[in-house]
Design brief:
Chains A, B: Keywords: Magnesium, Metal-binding, Molybdenum, Molybdenum cofactor biosynthesis, Transferase. The structure is a homodimer. The first copy, chain A, has about 650 residues and is α+β, with helices and mostly antiparallel strands. Chain A has five domains: about 170 residues, Molybdenum Cofactor Biosythetic Enzyme, Chain A, CATH 3.40.980; about 60 residues, Molybdopterin biosynthesis moea protein, domain 2 (Alpha-Beta Complex), CATH 3.90.105; about 90 residues, Molybdopterin biosynthesis moea protein, domain 3 (Molybdopterin biosynthesis moeA protein, domain 3); about 70 residues, Beta Barrel (Beta-clip), CATH 2.40.340; about 210 residues, 3-Layer(aba) Sandwich (D-Maltodextrin-Binding Protein, domain 2). In chain A, the strands form eleven sheets. In chain A, strands 7-4-6-5-9-8 form a six-stranded mixed β-sheet, with no helix packed on it. The longest helix of chain A has 19 residues. The radius of gyration of chain A is 35 Å and the shape is elongated. The two termini of chain A are about 45 Å apart. Chains A and B meet through helix 1, helix 3, strand 14, strand 15 and helix 4 of A and helix 1, helix 3, strand 14, strand 15 and helix 4 of B.
């Protein structure tokens, strides 16, 4: 991600790319073939430190567990033959031997015919005894004797030596992941140290002049380094010992130095950014000369993730992930995790799968296996898979997805209504308690806050007002937030409701004209006058909104027939408008008051918009819906909305 | 687990116990009511250190992601209005502005009408531009100009500011478990530190005079402390910061001192052992005086786990787990984990469930909710749930189970054939590749070793030869190891096969008489003479085997009509016989050569037993079965068997 490919032969570059692009399966197979089989390094660790690691060898039990025949109850060790004739009418009297077998004390006296020895739960059975009678089934019978009125079978209440774990048996196999249960078995057998596969040391490097680490100040045109943190965390989650070196600018000499140093001490090297084949991308040029055999695959017929680069440098895997977060994470999970887990001695990940209906058509590119991140909600007829489609540049596309579905390389689309197999990112589907699909607003977060506090999970999928209405009609959500002005009747929302939906009044959002504070052209004007002034100034650039947005209707009213410069800049959110003005990409635009204030912009109020909720009547009685309605009506939420700049309906 | 309850009023104690026993649900409800709601302590941590922890507060995005309108491709930032008329026949020529917008560099020049600015993927859109044209869709057109032959729509290849994450929106809710995906969202928003719920500090203490830590020498009558290690590990797995103090003898003063010290610095205190109400059990007496309200439940109608003790001492939960490992772990997971997770701010565990058929009748005690640990295998008609029934004293009952099923307090049994709901210990069912049900032998581990090395999972369920044959007939396993002598024909195994089963010859195990090395009574005798000598010596104690064991048939042959002392001591395994002789609980018995040698005992060979495999013919072609047969026939395995003291069939 640096300078664009502006060479005159870019068509050739493109051609070359196309020719060398491998299928996903072929790329992974070549990568694995260049790395495996290989010997894994083992480490000798104390048992408590072995949690989450993998056994490097079979562990054979060297003791019996229990180590001796053991009593399972508090009672008396007896010879069962002495009690063969015992019954209610025929008590048998046994003399007590002069010892009490507690836990941890070895018996000293044999149990001879006609005798018994008191024994505690866990105590070793003494010589001569072959059963235990519970204390509750005995009566004292004078000094040093007991009476028993029931027969007992040989072995009663005795756990024999080795009945839990037998000396000589293989307790755990090489390759077993050590969790608490394995620790229990090893401890029971007296194993204090185990040989485990050493965690592969994985060094992570971000590259790109534009990257700033979280917590630092974001200079203009820079972005926070997302991949560094998320790849580091995902390496840890998949058995690697992750070392993140930070983000480095695209300086070929310096970067090569850092990479060679890292390679010397790493079992795997992961870079992100710099994978396109443009002239400015230095990482892959460096990787090509780091060792043999070098680059295995550069370009994979995979979406997201086409620019992925896989290399093996003198035995060490080196990977360059795409720079965009969802591409980076998806290719990491799909192509790198299998290799990382093998290096860590872990079994392949066993991803859970569910079937879900795709509610909308998904277009796909021919010739590439395409993976679409989806969020799952419960529909009337089963699970629904909503594409979380903000694109591969968005971290939330990946982070807020429950899983992904696959569109074959030979398909151009997945039609609406398809029952698709969804591979889950986590073992369980956690269907949210409340599903809200429609137009998002930061005020909505204030309404759902009490639900979250009460442990109810809320999923909000942002598809705009009209998309929300469609989802509500199809029964795919509980509520659809909408703010649609019907121009004929000049009323909000109500005219758009259909059978089965009812309106829940939400709150009002003040729309107005924003400008940079200090811009003399707009100061002390009202909205109408400001727009008039802007239209007269040819250097004054506007930012519009997308067709179909409630705000766009208001802008068009103000503009009339005018199409000023910037009219075709049509972002899709209040925040994007505020950012365009704040960052001088435009001089004025229309957004809502809370967003304008958060961005530190001047604001001229123009009209109030009704942000309401279309409620699916059939779902009205669901506890989470009731909780939502209660929260919306509560004084607490109303106050929070007012503080944030919204007005009660 | 100390001295038995031998007071004359033990009947009263029993009565008292019965009266105060709570149902599982009631006990847990009272325990939680005494602890919650409560404020959880928060910690401010660097993002990388927050993995696996839980957010203590909502996190609101304070920046837009991306922070500016961004190009998604390498190309040229343009005004879409300039290209409205562009087409193959009508190329539009745009003059290039004198800058290249790379990643991380802020544009300096506006894109005026009729111009374009080169821009890299990730670069900020300059003022005036509203779309990006891919470099592949342009041609150089003389110095400082390009030609474009297609129209472009506003917003093409642009990701608007805030389209991924909008400033002001709630990014993550309080209570969210932080994994790599959450780290990615936080990093993308520039969040470097987060407020997380502090891990509850849980102190674990084992009690009992009989306990020895793994790695130390096992003195007579002592056992290794299993609960200390497994509870410590399970606390870590469920969000606690575990501190294991070791095992302490039942010394009331010392133990109280340790417990009070631990309580002062802990958010939870867990003891194991010492929960019965007998006189020797000190832990519960100490807990009763550690703080208010004290003991909440002591005795729960739960099997395994009846002696569980739950207390709250001045706000801190104190738990005494039963001493037997499976009881301890089961009650920990069922009753303690819900509380521990709430203390850690974690959501309730979401256990996966499957339906499986129970192949055998399971008896149950009326009046107690009974939980039965089961191992799952694939049968012809779905999953089969085998009880891993070695009892609550066995760690393997719990550790080798896939999950558990529940028998209602009001049921006396679960009939064979019941379709039961099994709650899984891990999210997935991992059905083993090869299932072996029957008689176990350490030699079998040598045969399956190559399978394990090849990544095939083998489950071996030890139910004896006859149990294995039944399982094979029902199609619940691939192979049943058997060693059954038909006395009529004096042949092994073949007479026991039925339709659908075939015999795979295994190996031979030498049976013989064992005695302690140095026991002058047996030295230099053969097996028959040794038994004759033993029968003449009334001080000489034998150890027998259980009815139905192959070994028992041989013993009975040697003994004829004689019933010497020790005849009724009838353990169920080769190892238990060896342990009884080695530990002086008996003077002689019969076991197999490898076990005798491992125990360091003298051995007089008597007869060779045939350890073979009944193979389910219908499963013969399964890859894991073929791998087993190949392994059994391999020179490698045959050599390993010989080295271990077995003989080829």
């Amino acid at each position: 991600m640096t300078e664009p490919k502006l060479s005159p032969n870019s068509a050739n570059v493109d051609q070359e790319q196309f020719l060398t692009i491998l299928s996903r399966e072929e790329a992974l197979a070549r990568f694995e073939a260049a790395l495996f089989p290989r010997d894994l390094t083992a480490d000798d660790l104390a048992l408590a430190d072995a949690m989450g690691l993998v056994l490097a060898n079979d562990v054979v039990a060297v003791v019996d567990v229990p180590p001796f025949d053991r009593s399972n109850v508090d009672g008396f060790a007896v010879r069962s033959a002495d009690l063969v004739a015992a019954g209610e009418a025929l008590p048998v009297r046994l003399l007590l031997n002069d010892e009490v077998i507690a836990c941890g004390t070895a018996p000293q006296l044999p149990v001879k015919q006609g005798t018994a020895t008191p024994i505690a739960t866990g105590g070793p059975i003494p010589r001569g005894a072959d059963a235990v009678v519970m204390v509750e089934h005995t009566q004292p019978a004078g000094s040093g004797a007991i009476e028993i009125r029931r027969a007992t079978s040989p072995g009663q209440f005795v756990s024999y030596a080795g009945s839990d774990i037998a000396c000589g048996e293989v307790l755990l196999r090489s390759g077993t992941l050590i969790g608490s249960r394995e620790i229990g078995m090893l401890a029971a057998s007296g194993v204090a140290r185990v040989s485990v596969v050493k965690k592969p040391r994985v060094t992570i490097i971000s590259t790109g002049d534009e990257l700033v680490q979280p917590g630092q100040a974001l200079r203009p045109a820079a972005i926070f380094d997302t991949n560094g943190a998320i790849v580091t965390a995902a390496v840890s989650e998949n058995g690697g010992e992750a070392h993140f070196l930070g983000a480095f600018p695209d300086d070929e000499d310096k970067l090569e130095h850092v990479m060679r140093e890292a390679l010397a001490t790493s079992d795997m090297l992961i870079l992100s950014g710099g994978t396109s084949k443009g002239e400015g991308d230095v990482s892959h040029r460096i990787v090509a000369r780091l060792g043999e055999p070098g680059i295995i695959a550069h370009g994979v017929a995979l979406k997201p993730g086409k620019p992925l680069c896989l290399a093996v440098c003198d035995g060490t895997p080196v990977v360059i992930l795409p720079g965009f977060p969802t591409s980076a994470m998806f290719t990491f999970h799909d192509m790198i995790v299998p290799v990382l887990r093998r290096l860590a001695g872990l079994p392949p990940r066993n991803d859970a799968r569910v079937t879900a209906k795709v509610p909308v058509r998904i277009a796909s590119e021919l010739g590439r296996t395409e993976f679409v991140m989806v969020a799952l909600v419960e529909g009337d007829g089963g699970l629904i898979a909503y594409p979380t489609g903000k694109g591969s540049g968005a971290i939330t596309s990946f982070a807020q997805a429950d899983g992904f579905l696959k569109i074959d390389a030979l398909a151009e689309q997945m039609p609406a209504g398809t029952q698709a197999e969804v591979t889950l990112f986590t073992p369980h589907v956690r269907v949210p308690d409340l599903v809200i699909v429609g137009s998002h607003c930061t005020g909505l977060d204030l309404v759902t806050e009490p639900l979250a506090r009460a442990g109810l999970s809320v999923r909000s999928i942002s598809v705009g007002s009209l998309g929300g209405l469609s989802a509500a009609r199809r029964g795919e959500c509980d509520l659809a937030p909408i703010h649609l002005l019907d121009e004929k009747t000049d009323t909000y929302n109500t005219p758009f409701l259909v059978e089965g939906l009812e309106l829940v009044p939400g709150y009002r959002r003040m729309q107005g004209i924003v400008f940079r504070a200090g811009d003399k052209r707009f100061e002390s004007l009202n909205a109408e006058d400001a727009v008039r002034a802007a239209l007269k100034d040819p250097s004054c650039l506007m930012v519009n909104r997308n067709q179909g947005a409630g705000t766009r209707i208001l802008i068009d009213r103000l503009l009339g027939e005018a199409r000023p410069d910037g009219y075709w800049n049509q972002p899709r959110s209040h925040n994007a408008v505020a950012a365009a003005v704040a960052q001088n990409r435009a001089d004025w635009g229309m957004t809502i008051a809370p967003v304008a204030h958060a961005a530190g912009l001047g604001f001229m109020p123009f009209a109030e918009e009704h942000y309401d909720f279309a409620l699916v009547t059939a779902r009205k009685q669901r506890p989470a819906v009731r909780a939502f309605l209660d929260a919306l009506a509560s004084a607490e939420v109303q106050k929070a909305l007012e503080r944030a700049g919204f007005r009660p309906a």
